[in-house]
UniProtKB/TrEMBL annotation:
InterPro entries: ATPase_AAA_core (IPR003959), P-loop_NTPase (IPR027417). This is ATPase AAA-type core domain-containing protein. It comes from the Bacteria. It comes from Corynebacterium riegelii. GO terms for molecular function: ATP binding; ATP hydrolysis activity. Residues 263-386 form the ATPase AAA-type core domain. The lineage of its organism: Bacteria, Bacillati, Actinomycetota, Actinomycetes, Mycobacteriales.
Length: 446
């Protein structure tokens, strides 16, 4: 689970700004908060909504997470540039590194990961396991100098293997995070893979994080798989009676043989079906024995005589297609066994208010002390700033100051922001910031 994400010197976020998911002591709606293992004595918020004006920088928190994911899953090659995008409104920012700090829970343990990089290389990198009373450093990287306290702590029997691992890891390229490199290195059969698990915590956790950009046409995640969106989409009051799956030849997808092979390889590793969408329609791909099976998905609409009418996917509205994509992901998230973080940019771009509320409430109804799923979204829709639906520490106000720097503050940090107050009215009156002060626009003609 995500516990805290801090960003500095990335796009409009110059000074460190954090999204903290650890719950405060507020008792309101606390029974639905996931609980960490007993040693930590903490609960975590399963949801966070980022509210703010246009261009306040809400999306940059999600873009930062996506950048970190890509750095770990697909780091730059020697001839490729680093994804360095420093704050543009201060000249000195280009001389400073971008910093991502990630606090997360994985396998029942808490970890802190810090990555600092500039336009040329990784500058600093740290991974620490947080125990109940002490911390255990896993690795330290500072300008090409490495330390592996975790490997140094191994017993004498494992000393030779630890030395081999240390030697291999110190060969990491300058542009590649160590947290990425350790997941790709072949350590050989004489190394106990279980003892490397703390080194792999970052890459394994980030596989469970999915960022959905605003207006995304399609997103895919082996970890999220395929959810039961077919049932959910009939409940959105859009005249949809059901979903029809028609088996077709794989060639109907209009994709290359190479991509079909990639689908097969992915299904052999993760048997859950894959759904894909392109200009030829929406398809579900699965394995039946050794055979690749493809189904074309269409929605059944009810006409005036209650007769189901199937439309081509291309003829469905953008809103309906967006709803299907997000409902698929959220339905997986709402499965009690899912470990994952779904981050959706501009939720209101896909759903109207009541549908957004129904989706959020439906997800929260599945959350509890044993759940391990989180939903984080950005929105302009103030009707979602509902204290009966969200706790005050789940409502985040994002704004830019006069220097163009983005900051984020939880509503619980404001004095007088009672859970029974009219939060929307107070917000629009400027009591909490995050709302633009606008005069009527002047349009000049001629």
């Amino acid at each position: 689970m995500l516990l805290d994400f801090t960003v500095a010197n990335f796009r409009s976020i110059y000074q460190p700004a954090s999204l903290n998911m650890v719950a405060t002591r507020e008792q309101h709606l606390r029974d639905r908060n996931p609980a960490l293992v007993q040693r930590y004595k903490k609960t975590v918020n399963p949801i966070a909504g980022l509210f703010g004006a246009n261009a306040a920088g809400k999306s940059n928190f999600l873009k930062a997470m996506q950048t970190l994911k890509e750095l770990i899953s697909n780091p730059p090659r020697p001839n490729e540039s680093m994804p360095y995008d420093p704050f543009a409104l201060d000249r000195s920012a280009s001389q400073q590194p971008t910093t991502f700090e990630l606090l997360f829970e994985w396998g029942g343990m808490m970890y802190e990961y810090i990555l600092c990089y500039d336009s040329n290389s990784v500058v600093e990198e740290y991974l620490t396991k947080l125990l109940s009373r002490t911390d255990q450093e896993i690795f330290v990287r500072e300008r090409g100098v490495f330390a592996f306290p975790y490997l140094d702590s191994q017993d004498d029997a494992a000393e030779k293997a630890a030395e081999k691992v240390r030697t291999l890891l110190e060969a990491v390229p300058t542009k590649v995070p160590l947290a990425s490199y350790v997941a790709e290195v072949n350590f050989g059969g004489d190394v106990d893979k279980q003892k490397l698990e703390p080194l792999l915590a970052v890459s394994e956790f980030l596989k469970t994080v999915l960022v959905v950009p605003a207006g995304a046409v399609d997103v895919a995640s082996e970890q999220f798989g395929v959810g039961d969106w077919q049932e959910a989409i009939t409940q959105i009051d859009a005249g949809i009676a059901g979903v029809h799956a028609e088996e077709v030849e794989p060639s109907a997808m209009g994709v290359s043989a190479e991509l079909l092979r990639e689908y097969r390889q992915a299904l052999e590793q993760h048997p859950a079906p894959i759904e894909a969408e392109n200009e030829h329609g929406r398809f579900r791909v699965a394995l039946n024995g050794d055979n690749l099976v493809v189904y074309r998905m269409t929605l059944e609409h009810v006409n005036g005589t209650n007769t189901p009418v199937r439309l081509k996917w291309a003829d469905e509205s953008d809103g309906t297609k967006a709803a299907a994509r997000l409902l698929e992901l959220v339905s997986v998230l709402a499965d009690g066994g899912t470990h994952g973080v779904l981050m959706v940019d501009e939720l209101d771009r896909s759903f109207h208010t009541e549908l957004s509320r129904a989706l959020i409430r439906g997800f929260l109804n599945t959350c509890g002390p044993d759940s391990r799923a989180q939903l984080i979204f950005t929105t302009h829709d103030l009707l979602l700033m509902d204290p009966q639906m969200l706790r005050r520490d789940e409502i985040w106000l994002v704004e830019k100051d006069h220097r163009g720097q983005t900051s984020a503050t939880a509503l619980s940090d404001y004095d007088g922001a009672r859970k029974d107050a009219d939060l929307r009215k107070s917000y629009l009156q400027g009591r909490f910031g995050g709302v633009p002060a606008l005069e009527p626009l002047e349009f000049v003609h001629g």
